[in-house]
Amino acid sequence: MNMTLSTMEPDDVSSGTNSHCVEITPVEAQKVAQPPHRSTLQKLKTRLKETFFPDDPFRQFKGQTFNSKWILAAQYIFPILQWGPNYSFRLFKSDIISGLTIASLAIPQGISYAKLASLPPIVGLYSSFVPPLVYAVLGSSRDLAVGPVSIASLVLGSMLRQEVSPSHDPVLYLQLAFTSTFFAGVLQASLGLLRLGFIIDFLSKATLIGFMAGAAIIVSLQQLKGLLGITHFTKQMSLVPVVSSVFHRSDEWSWQTILMGVCFLTFLLLARYISMRKPKLYWISAGAPLASVILSTILVFAFKGQRHGISIIGKLQEGLNPPSWNMLRFHGTHLGLVIKTGFVTAILSLTEGIAVGRTFAALRNYQVDGNKEMMAIGIMNIIGSATSCYVTTGAFSRSAVNHNAGAKTAVSNIVMAVTVMVTLLFLMPLFQYTPNVVLAAIIITAVVGLIDIPAAYNIWKIDKFDFIVLLSAFFGVVFISVQEGLAIAIGISIFKILLQVTRPKTVILGNIPGTDIYRNVDHYKEALSIPGFLVFGIEAPINFTNTTYLKERTLRWIEEFQEDKVGKKKSSIKFLILDLSGVSSIDTTGVSLFKDLKKALENRGIQLVLVNPVGELMEKLQRSEEARDLMAHGTLYLTIGEAVAGLSSTLKAQSSSPV
Amino acid sequence: MNMTLSTMEPDDVSSGTNSHCVEITPVEAQKVAQPPHRSTLQKLKTRLKETFFPDDPFRQFKGQTFNSKWILAAQYIFPILQWGPNYSFRLFKSDIISGLTIASLAIPQGISYAKLASLPPIVGLYSSFVPPLVYAVLGSSRDLAVGPVSIASLVLGSMLRQEVSPSHDPVLYLQLAFTSTFFAGVLQASLGLLRLGFIIDFLSKATLIGFMAGAAIIVSLQQLKGLLGITHFTKQMSLVPVVSSVFHRSDEWSWQTILMGVCFLTFLLLARYISMRKPKLYWISAGAPLASVILSTILVFAFKGQRHGISIIGKLQEGLNPPSWNMLRFHGTHLGLVIKTGFVTAILSLTEGIAVGRTFAALRNYQVDGNKEMMAIGIMNIIGSATSCYVTTGAFSRSAVNHNAGAKTAVSNIVMAVTVMVTLLFLMPLFQYTPNVVLAAIIITAVVGLIDIPAAYNIWKIDKFDFIVLLSAFFGVVFISVQEGLAIAIGISIFKILLQVTRPKTVILGNIPGTDIYRNVDHYKEALSIPGFLVFGIEAPINFTNTTYLKERTLRWIEEFQEDKVGKKKSSIKFLILDLSGVSSIDTTGVSLFKDLKKALENRGIQLVLVNPVGELMEKLQRSEEARDLMAHGTLYLTIGEAVAGLSSTLKAQSSSPV
């Protein structure tokens, strides 16, 4: 060992080679291990598992008896069986408090969001009764509070109104809303069942922040109708028609409505601000909407506000959810629209529900299985569509209140549902005089939280391209339409990824003096290139989209490299060392890169040397007849250091006898 | 230096650390260099250059005087100015021989391919006259022989026939064909001008092989009409209707036609076989089509074949290409179809033209600029559409003959064009008695070469997934339709890439004993994991599509790793070392991975350690407030070896005082 080192010359590049602490023969040094043989079926199995079961949900079943497998399976499908038996009065005390708190939020929000979707207010309450009960049985999150949400309500309404007017044809509109909910549920449950949950990952953070901010603006603008008391309002959603409608209808503005709206909006925003500053005072913002509804209803009732131009909800039907499976329409001209609406709302509500579930699971350190949650949310919506509910999911604001109020299990959802049930059965007449302006104020307060400027600034700081995605989502939603804005942003995000794949990163590596480490010369100023060698790293999978580029780029690197040292003779590079450590996969088009490159380099008098082709790459190169000779002795090394060391002697022999 | 080594214990992991040949303090070892600061604009410039100018076509202009820049620019646009001044009689001798050879192939192929596109035969000859002249001026390949090709002809015909019948409305059909050609040209030229040439890279080798084989089958089946002498033939393209049509019309089979067809087909295939075995005899397969046409025409004329049920071409118009710009239709009901047809044929013909150009450029060791070639082919088609030509490109069979016949420059294209011109002016009446069955035989012989079974077998051997893509292209074309088969195959290919991005490879690394090298433990059996550490490598860009997966997968690796060693206590892992060398880029969603992971690991009592974050990654982590504390002292190392060495001491101190 010491012998090797003592014969070293200080500037000899080969001396730094990794394995030189151990005496090795050149043949040993070049040994790149073969990946263990696996059949196509095995590989397919691994790949399918990685794609669809990355979280390996069945691991817990391994090594269990038949009976306990049954119990585990039942617990897997119905998480209530898991925590139910251990449920205690102590837990119930926490759950009843949090359940009542979220109910006080759920009732005004339910009515408001239903109006956002142009549905009768009572549908919002129906949707806060059945779905939470279903989720309590099927869901695995302990913090999620279920109900209608603003984004899905907005999108459902704006898409359905394209074809059907809720005021002219309310029954058809309601049918389409329930059918959309049904399709949304079927899609959600299928995504979960088919383990395709990763589809929601295609909504990047930047897309979501831009989209939500845009949606918040659009929703708030829509509320100007209620806030100003305008009766003839545009049906369009985007900025320009809404603003022009507001100012064209200034004769319809009602000062009584505006005064009431401004007061309650200030109160609600203040309550929100206080709770944000002091999370312990969560009950202020949680209770404010209900307080506003009660107070405003009393005011209107006392002063006969409806006679002074303040519009009120009006008479509401009493009673629990009527069945609605006979209202599902699977035929007719609107089927396409209904499926599309179901699809978009399904993805959006899943995104919110799963993100909320994961956030609180991380806070309390338990796991949420995304795909299983999708099935729970999907089944909840399917059942909902048959019981007069529209699209529901885990709502962010409501879940945050639930968490802060100390919810321990899904029982808080049951408490909320029971409270809503009592309201539906006995308290509906009380809402008759609730003014619409208060609902508008509640909606605005809820959506203002969707505008996340610090997060947007953070994205601007980190990645300018992501910020462009954010802006395109935002402006797309504000100026074109909610669904098109979303589509544009997703399209740009995917295009960016494809572009990244098409133009993978390639780096020139240099030796860090005194070590055996090779690093990017652009990044490490001290990294030096070794005369006669060009060390070149590819840091991406090689496939059909980038094979041509990689070949052209490699040849250009060589030319640039030789031009840099214009003093030296043109043939200064003798070896191109290709570090393949970063190439995680390759396809058949990619395999031809090496053959083509070898040929092109030979014409230039340069030898191609490969370093560290990993697993799949090694395997495929060997299976290809054309590339196999590249794996011959002297052209394949385990590390760059070994390659440089092994080839330096060849180079020296060459340079001593000038050609 | 020797001191360090002499104090080493043989089994001490830290002893193998890379930089230990040089004495270094721990602080030095942990130094990961900052990437040099570059402004957003600089980065954008680099990215745009890599995306659109990877071949750096303007490099030659650097450091030139103003005048020579002008000359270089003119030579860049019109390559004829580059080789023209040096053109010699010796080169011309070679070019005239190859030009005449390809003309003898171009004339029968032109007529045949025009029939394949359901166009009048003479349009095929027109298309072999003007486009070669344009290409001779603009093109940079010396071997490309230009003219109509089978695939583009097939697709053009099959797409246009969807809406317009060439027999019922021949003028409209012709107008649509020219307009499609115009759009194809505009698209091709724009792709070149906008440097978007990489779009054709999205047609992978597997897709192309499957598609071409399928198209060859479809084309050959269509020729059964001519080969069997059937007059009432289906207009559909896919396998089932064609075969059923052949057998339902067995009463129309003409034995004279069949006999003639079989004879000439045998002759042509034999000629092709001979030339393939002995490339020097290229002239046999090059001359065979013309010989067949002449021989069969004489036979029909002598025996009055047309009276015995042998269908003939019939009277052809004499004269050069009439102008056709007045036939371009930019309005009306068929505009969508025409644009779509133009788009598909543009991409297909570009793919063939560029691939042929690159193949022969590589053989003769000169460079072809893909984007410039696209502009040349595009302008050729725009001019063609105004002079009664349909889509043309560099044809593979014809270029191979051109190359084998010794073509030196694009002058061989001019010679071919002049020969075709002479034919158009004086020899057209001679083709009156040419039987259609011979054209069918010529087409079949040409397309048989598109079925590349060895290449398909090679793909099967190397990559099973690519083979699935190949099969789906093949069966899609054969059983559904030409364009849908192509679309399906491209869709699957892109889906595969997205899936790869969504599910990037992660590997557990182990130390190769006696060295400082860390390698995949699945791949290198001798690689050992180090107690207390889990060394984990991510080999892909981290972005919004895979952040969730990577987090879940990492946590699963930890659980699996701890379960393997079930004998040891649960807390056997103290450090998770994340090797980020393979992470070439990251986006804002990806940045949150590290923060989330750190939190999740802390709950498990594991410390997260990062190794070698490169350029962009390092930069973005530092710009993100949340992730910045990850870069603190003791959690960031340059190599895995250094990290293990640095942390082992911490671990030993911990384990000596059991918790």
Automatic annotation (TrEMBL), chains A, B:
Q: Which GO terms describe its cellular component?
A: membrane
- Subcellular location as annotated: Membrane
Ranges where the STAS domain occurs: 523-647
Transmembrane segment boundaries: 119-137, 172-194, 206-233, 253-274, 281-303, 374-397, 409-431, 437-460, 467-495
Superkingdom of the source species:
Eukaryota
Major localisation: membrane
Matching entries from InterPro entries are given as: S04_transporter_CS, SLC26A/SulP_dom, SLC26A/SulP_fam, STAS_dom, STAS_dom_sf
Q: Supply the name of the protein.
A: STAS domain-containing protein
